[in-house]
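Summary of Year 1 activities. Much of the first year was spent building the evaluation harness for sequence design. The harness presents a backbone, in tokenized form, and records the residue chosen at every position. We chose the following record to illustrate the format because it has been used consistently in internal testing since the harness was completed.
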């Protein structure tokens, strides 16, 4: 697809309501804000009472658009997910002379280069995040065929290929032979690179991109200039739009309304959905329970998917080392408010030594509660329990909205 058409398509999107952003403070406090200026050092905003304020990055865990709006994906764009959870959306191409590096051409951010040993998956941007089977690298073709082996990289097509022009995916099959696949014939690529911890400043855009930045500076009213960590180095300063010696920060200018998420330090927060699920058990009077439902991480605010609780139940997670807090909202969805009435209880501690940390009642009169849970003792396990209320177990199916674990190193 022509790059100018992609840019035009994205330009039609006006972004989420700028008045509905949530700021999560370092102390797990939550407030509604309207961002006005975003920089690496901090953010200026208007609070709910209309007062203009400034907060340094050290006092902010995250800022995100409460609506979690996404634009409709443009056909032909792919999502490259890295080992540390970045999601780069754009056209995927080979890098001339370097088969082991992938180029992602983003409509706004330009050309991004990612080493193949950092890539976890390549898939259509409009599709949910693919699951990673254990073992070899896996390639799923557009016709449904599945190939296993070792993904060796991307390269330009040559005269011996059955197609002309474009990019070729190289895979060494388990049989010992090498296949050259036109990238347009490939639906999903799964690479068995291990996951790594997120770190540094991370930004989420309304097209579903999530990427690390080395610099962010205000570029005028309602604009921010971002310098992605993986931006390809131009051959000349003029290719960056930088006049030598003028002090301009290289990067790409983005409309602030299209920045739907920002973490000054992505290593401080992890999605609860990424924690190990230990078990799910029913709560009386139910003799059974379903598993919780986790929404797609690719379309989730801050990459933290919502968790739909399966009615009266007790759900236990093993918490990552260093966890000392939880921030989320607990919501009784509108579809369940006619008869839904339940208590949500959060317990935490070690095996056999759980203590109650939070309790709240949800019903039609109070369908939403904020959870600000400071756990200085750094528990290793956490239980979320749903107890039926006045009307029994009918429609007692709350949802944890954007549940985030705070991580603090010792």
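For this record, the design step produced the sequence shown next.
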């Amino acid at each position: 697809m022509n790059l100018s058409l992609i840019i035009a398509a994205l330009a039609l999107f006006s972004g989420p309501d700028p008045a509905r952003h949530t700021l999560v403070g370092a102390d797990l406090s939550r407030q509604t804000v309207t961002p006005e200026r975003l920089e690496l050092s901090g953010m200026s905003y208007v609070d709910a009472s209309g007062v203009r304020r400034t907060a340094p990055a050290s006092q902010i865990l995250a800022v995100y658009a409460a609506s979690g709006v996404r634009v409709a994906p443009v056909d032909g764009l792919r999502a490259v997910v890295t080992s540390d959870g970045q999601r780069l959306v754009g056209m995927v191409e080979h890098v001339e002379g370097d088969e082991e590096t992938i180029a992602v051409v983003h409509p706004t951010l330009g050309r991004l280069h990612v080493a193949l040993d950092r890539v976890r998956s390549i898939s259509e941007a409009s599709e949910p995040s693919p699951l990673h089977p254990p073992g070899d690298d896996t390639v799923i073709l557009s016709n449904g065929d599945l190939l296993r082996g070792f993904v060796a990289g991307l390269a330009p097509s040559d005269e011996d290929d059955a197609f002309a022009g474009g990019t070729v995916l190289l895979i060494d099959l388990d049989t010992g032979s090498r296949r050259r696949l036109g990238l347009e014939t490939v639906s999903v690529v799964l690479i068995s690179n291990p996951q790594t911890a997120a770190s540094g400043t991370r930004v989420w855009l309304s097209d579903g991109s999530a990427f690390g930045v080395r610099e962010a500076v205000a570029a005028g009213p309602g604009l921010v200039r971002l310098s992605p960590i993986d931006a390809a180095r131009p051959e000349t300063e003029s290719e960056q739009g930088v006049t030598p010696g003028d002090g301009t920060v290289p990067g790409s200018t983005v409309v602030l309304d299209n920045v739907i998420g920002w973490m000054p330090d992505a290593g401080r927060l992890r999605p609860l959905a990424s924690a190990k699920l230990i078990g799910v058990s029913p709560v009386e009077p139910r003799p059974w329970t379903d598993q919780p439902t986790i929404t797609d991480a690719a379309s989730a605010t801050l990459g933290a998917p919502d968790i739909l609780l399966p009615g009266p139940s007790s759900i236990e997670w093993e918490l990552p080392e260093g966890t000392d807090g939880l921030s989320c909202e607990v919501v009784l969805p509108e579809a369940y408010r006619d008869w839904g009435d339940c208590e949500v209880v959060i317990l935490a501690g070690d095996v056999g030594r759980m203590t109650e940390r939070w309790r709240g009642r949800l019903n039609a009169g109070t369908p939403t509660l904020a959870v600000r849970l400071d756990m200085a003792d750094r528990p290793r396990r956490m239980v979320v329990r749903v107890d039926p209320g006045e009307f029994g177990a009918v429609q007692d199916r709350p949802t944890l909205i954007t549940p985030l674990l705070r991580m603090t190193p010792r």
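The first helix runs from residue 3 to 11. Quantitative recovery figures across the full test set are reported in Table 2.
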